Amino acid sequence: MSRYSELGVDVKKRGVESFREIVENLFPNAFCIIQRDPDNPRAGLVAHTDGAGSKPIQSYLHWRETGDPTWFQGLAQDVIAMNLDDITCVAAKPVSFIDYITLNPYTVHRISLLESLAKGFSQCFKILKNLGISIPFAGGETADHPDQLRTLDVSGSIFGRVGLDKVVTGEKIEPGDLIVGLESGGKAKYERCLNSGIMCNGLTLARNCLMDKRYASMYPEISYNVDRFTGRYKFDEYLDELEMTVGEALLSPTRIFTPIVNKILSENGEPVHAMVHNTGGGVTKCLRLGHGIHYIKDSLPEPSPIFRLIQRESKTDWQEMYEDFNMGVGFELIVKPESVDEIINIAEGFNVKAMVIGHCEKSKAQNRLTVSSRFGKFMYI
What we know:
By secondary structure, the protein is of the alpha+beta class. The chain is 28% helix and 25% strand. Helix 8 packs antiparallel against helix 11. The model has no long low-confidence stretch (mean pLDDT 95).
C-alpha cells in the first residue's frame, strides 16, 4: 500500500469510471469534458469544478495558532487556479465562476473566514484582469455543516466556452512530439511572493509528515487520529532550503498558468497538441491524453525543495512521489519540436522557467509513462 493510500487518499480516483457512461462528452479523451452548445453547434461548453483539497486544514491551523484570518486568503487563488488552468488545457475561455464554501461554525469564525476569502477572490480576479483574463464572479453558496465537517472546505466551479475547431483534445499527439514543462515554483512576474510550487495536491501527506505531531493533540478537529501526525516542524519554522517557513511553503497559492498559455496559444496554437495541468496524479497526469502513446520523461528538473523535504520526512518511495506531486512541473505542453524555443521564450518572459522534460514515442498497447531520474527509473500505466 502506498504512503498516500495509508492516509486515506486514492490518487487514481477509482470509482469515477462509474460516471463515464452517463456523461455526454464530445471528446472522451480530452483533459476536460466538452459538450455541444445547444444554441451554437460550432461551440463547446465546458463546466468544471474543483477545490483546494485539504489545504484549508493547513490554513485553519495557522489561524488557530495566530488568530489571523488572512491565512485563509490564498485559498481563493488555489480554487481559481485549479479550475481555470484545467479548462485552459482544452483552450476554453472562462465565462463565469462560482464558489462553494462550507464550514463548521463551532470551530471556524464564519465572518472572518468569508471576509478573508472575499478579499482573496477580489485580488486574484483583479490580477487576472490586468493580464487580459476577465472572469465574471457570479457568487456561490456558503453552507454551515456542523455535523458533517470538522473545519472547512473551499471549492468552486467555472464555466467556459471554446470553438469546436479550436479545442485542444490530445488526439493529435504523435511520436516525436516534445514535452515542455512549466515550473510550479519560483516567482512569476504577476505573483507577489516566492512560491514553493506545491499547488493543491498531496497536502494530506505533506501536512501529516511535516507538521509537529503535537498540533493534532492541540486541535483534534484537524485529524480523526492524532497518530497520523508524525512531523517535527512548527508552522512558522523557517528553513533555509525552502527560503520560507514550512507553513508558508505548504500554503503557497497555486500558480495560475493561463496567462502564459493564452499567449502561447495566440502565437503558437497550431503546434500545441495537448496540455496537462499536473494536479491529481502529479507527473503521471499525462496518461489520460492521446492513444497508444509512451511518454518518456527523462529530463525532469531536480524536484523542488518542498518535495525533497516531504520525501525525506515521510520516507515515501520516489516512484510514488512522482505520482502524488507535481515535483516542480505544474503544467505541460505537448508540442511539435519546431515550436519549443518560442514557447520557452514566452514562458520565461513571465519569469517562469520552462524546459523540455521529455518526448513521446509509440506504445504498442495502452498509454504508458517512463520517468527516468537520478532516483530511479519508474514505469506507470
